[in-house]
Amino acid sequence: MTFSASLTQEVSMMESELCSAFSDPTRILILYKLDEQPCTVTELMAHLNLSQPMVSRHLKVLRDRGLVAAERQGINMLYHLVDRRLIDALDILRGVLRDRILHRANLITEIQA
Length: 113
Prior knowledge:
Elements: H1 5-20, H2 25-36, H3 41-48, H4 52-64, E1 68-73, E2 76-81, H5 85-112
Antiparallel strand pairs: 1-2
């Protein structure tokens, strides 16, 4: 099946937008924490040792990209991961990173030998 150039470009833009959510280490930490359990802003603040505005700003980016959702529970909003495959994707990226680090370490070892 072939796609038109405009559709291919649109899908690539959507992928880029999704991946931009991964461009900040704090957002990645938030995603991993929400994979463990749904959390309130206060719980994320305590876990990450960040201010409320900072956590809220990161959650807004993740919400806007459709990666997390929120449900009202009393006076709090409880945030949760929308799709567990996001963590699988991050784990794959960590595997690639690990392999790159090992490759560089091997190069250093070879140079020192």
